[in-house]
């Protein structure tokens, strides 16, 4: 039976596209790129980005 939708294939295509877009970026540029894509996503779906608490590692 032929699948109508293959989620693994879709994931692989998205990752390949992102790799091509980011392959010449520095780690800081990659992080900014990903953050901007996330912001664009939340604007597109019409919701505010969820707040994530940053846990500070306590040193005793």
Task: Please provide a brief summary of the model.
The chain is mainly α.
Radius of gyration: 17 Å
Low-confidence stretches: none
Question: What's the β-strand tally?
Answer: 0
β-sheet strand percentage: under 5%
How many angstroms does the end-to-end distance come to?
Answer: 59 Å
The arrangement of helices and strands along the chain is HH
**Average of per-residue pLDDT values:** 85
Describe the protein's architecture and organization:
The model has no long low-confidence stretch (mean pLDDT 85). The protein contains 2 helices and no strands. It has 60 residues and is mostly helical. It has helices at residues 7-22, 27-44. Helix content is 57%, strand content 0%.
What labels would you give this structure?
single chain; 60 residues; 2 helices
Give the topology:
Elements: H1 7-22, H2 27-44
């Amino acid at each position: 039976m032929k699948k109508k939708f293959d989620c693994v294939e879709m994931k692989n295509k998205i990752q390949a596209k992102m790799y091509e877009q980011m392959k010449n970026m520095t780690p800081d540029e990659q992080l900014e790129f990903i953050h901007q894509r996330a912001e664009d996503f939340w604007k597109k779906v019409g919701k505010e980005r969820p707040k994530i608490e940053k846990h500070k590692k306590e040193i005793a």
